[in-house]
Design goal:
The protein is α/β, with parallel strands linked by helices. The chain has nine helices and seven strands; from the N terminus they run ααβαβαββαβααβααβ. Strands 3-2-1-4-5-7-6 form a seven-stranded mixed β-sheet. Helix 2 runs parallel beside helix 9. It is globular, with a radius of gyration of 17 Å. The N terminus is likely disordered.
């Protein structure tokens, strides 16, 4: 992972999307245990939604030194996160050798130009039976000025994310999340074309569309959505 085009300006505004974080975190929490690496942790706003009693250790890896320092200060003010480690760097700077049971990429993989190579490096850091978990924006046709402004190289489909599978891992789950969020993203692409959403727009989506999406996603068996969830398990 490199820090090129890693902006991070959107992190603060999306920290208000609490219901969305509660939703996707509930979908991936069963896969998270043991020693955890959170790649591209940013300000650490996702960590409180994921850390649980099933965790032995939690390492937050962040390439931007300013974000890493702010994350460390935020964690020091939260007793439940005080034992988390913060490392300024990338998977390339961590070296090699299996040491983690779970590696997370929460809205991060789309920032990395060499996404396939990134997941291969992650697999090298993973213990046998461990998991890589990715949450990423879906559908290239939804790519907007906002994606470009925050350093997204791409959005994903089931096929394109599956194509990133590490050689020694098997795909355990691949599904879409937030079916109604496609409407909001489509409106921004066609009508608004902003390079950054307003806080009021984020709050409306989070308060009204996300809860409805949780219901609709189950009814449609997660076949549509503006985000994509992928889980890989490392083979022996």
């Amino acid at each position: 992972m490199t820090s090129d085009n890693y902006v991070g300006h959107e992190l603060e505004i999306f920290s208000h999307a609490v219901k969305w974080k509660e939703y996707w975190s509930s979908e991936i929490r069963p896969y998270i245990l043991g020693d955890v690496l959170e790649v591209g942790a940013g300000l650490g706003v996702n960590t409180p939604f994921l850390k649980s009693a099933q965790i032995s250790s939690w390492t937050c890896l962040e390439p931007d030194p300013e974000l890493c320092a702010r994350m460390q200060a935020n964690f020091m003010a939260q007793p439940q996160l005080a034992d988390c480690q913060q490392k300024n760097g990338t998977t390339e700077t961590l070296g090699s050798g299996p040491r983690f049971n779970t590696i997370l990429y929460i809205d991060v993989l789309e920032h990395i130009e060499g996404d396939h190579a990134e997941l291969e490096r992650a697999s090298n850091l993973l213990r046998i039976g461990g998991r890589i978990v990715v949450v990423a924006p879906a559908h290239q046709w939804l790519y907007t000025a906002f994606d470009r402004a925050i350093g997204h190289h791409r959005r994903y489909t089931r096929l394109s994310l599956s194509d990133c599978s590490p050689q020694d891992c098997e795909m355990e789950r691949l599904c879409y999340l937030d079916s109604l969020g496609i409407l909001a993203s489509s409106m921004n692409r066609v009508f608004l074309r902003r390079d950054m959403p307003k806080l009021s727009e984020i709050e409306f989506w989070d308060r009204f569309l996300v809860p409805a999406s949780r219901i609709l996603d189950s009814l449609t068996f997660h076949r549509i959505g503006k985000s994509l969830l992928g889980v890989w398990r490392k083979l022996g």
